[in-house]
Amino acid sequence: MGEAMKSQAVRRVGLALAAAVMAGAAAAAALTGAEAAKDRQTHMKELGKSMKTIVDQLKSGAPDVGTIKLAAATIDKDAKALPTWFPDGSGPSSGVKMKALPVVWTDKAGFAAKAKDFQLAAAKFDAAAQTGQPSTFVPALKEVGGACKACHEKYRTKDED
Amino acid sequence: MSAEPSDPLGSPAEASLTSVPVKVWDVPVRAIHWSLAALVAFSWWSAKSDHLDWHRMSGYTILGLLVFRLIWGFVGSQPARFANFLAGPRTVANYLRGKGAHQAGHNPLGGWSVVALLSLLGLQVGLGLFSVDEDAIEAGPLDKFVSFDTGRAITHWHHLMFDLLLVLIAVHLAAIAIYAARRRNLLGPMITGRARLAPGVEAPAMAPLWRIAAAAAAAFAVAWFIAHGLKLV
After folding, report:
1. Across the interface, which of A44, A55, A160 has its CB nearest the CB of B139?
2. Residue at B13 is within a domain
3. Which member of B137, B144, B156 has the closest CB to residue A148?
């Protein structure tokens, strides 16, 4: 095999590799949008579960403070991560069935403000929960619920599932 | 089915009825009927407009009324008792063919429609007790006994069941319209409590006031206990 032929073969392999890498990257990007959407839905559901854990404890008449503290810390941690759950491409265009409205991605400043409100409420509630005093943390929990609702009112469809 | 005006759906023609109307629907039956109609509409509106506190109160009231109606179906005035208006398939078929004895109160087909409506409403309230919204902020009083996933699935059924309830209500209204077209007024007696009966049909016995009070107290206690998450206070 001559040098010229060898370098041509190398170039072909190189081109094929480059094409494969690009196709892979494109596929990965598409997957990331849908995946991010699904991850977000899982996270949101976990948030709902944490809320229910706390509410159920309060309704039980003899709330387990340890369980509430743990769930409060989880909500605080989730709230801090929440803004990263909405990357570009994870909206309705990802093809995933969702209740998130496109306005999340068109009104980024407004959405960020709502996320911030939620983070503040969650941090306050977490701190209040660590005291173990329902009289302290129940009002803070209501603020968390209010922050959830305020954002969902505007950025989530009201359609039933 | 015969379209003769003398034989509408097995009921005697208006002209053959006695001229003096007698008491058929007592105050509890009428009050429950119209309260349920209003509260179903209110429940729908309060859910749609996010007034979940009102929605729960409405549901608890419906629950109390249904418990009362259940008790009344055993110890209430004659036309309210299940034993007096729930008939077997042959009686229903005879009624549709225009045969069979006339009686005061529900006819053999209407009796089953009442039971279907009340059962579905009871099921709907039951599902609502275990429901939870997707943020776990709003929940029924018995939601604490189920997981988040189960509560969400029940809420889904709570939504579907309402559509089914609307279908039954539409059938109920259509039946009233069909009887009206055949010159049988079902609406009037449900307002005044009085209806004209076929000759020879005895006026039904009405329950005394003390029994209304006793059934109401029992129904209130049951609804209270459930609404408070199976706790007394």
Report:
1. A55
2. no
3. B137
pLDDT tens, B122-170? 999 999 999 999 889 999 999 999 999 999 999 999 999 999 999 999 9
Asked, for residue B109, whether it belongs to a domain, the answer is: yes
Q: Are A75 and A144 in contact (CB under 8 A)?
A: yes
Residues 6+ apart with CB under 8 A from B37: none
Find, among A151, A152, A78, A139, the residue nearest to A112 by Cα: A151
For residue B3, being part of any structural domain is answered with no
Q: Count of domains in chain B?
A: 1
Cα–Cα nearest to A56, from B155, A36, A48: A48
The residues of A whose Cβ lies within 8 A of any Cβ of B are 44-45, 47-49, 51-52, 55-56, 59-61, 145, 148-149, 152, 160-161
- Chain A interface test: which of B48, B50, B55, B134 (most A C-beta within 10 Å): B134
**pTM (predicted TM-score):** 0.85
- Asked whether the ipTM of the predicted complex exceeds the cut of 0.95, the reply is no
Range of the domain at B49: 20-227
- Residues from chain A contacting residue B156 (CB–CB below 8 Å): 161
Tokens found for residue B4: 């003769």
- Report the residue from A51, A56, A60 with minimal CB separation from B137: A51
Residue with tokens 């007394």, as numbered in its chain:
B232
Strands B194-195 and B22-23: antiparallel
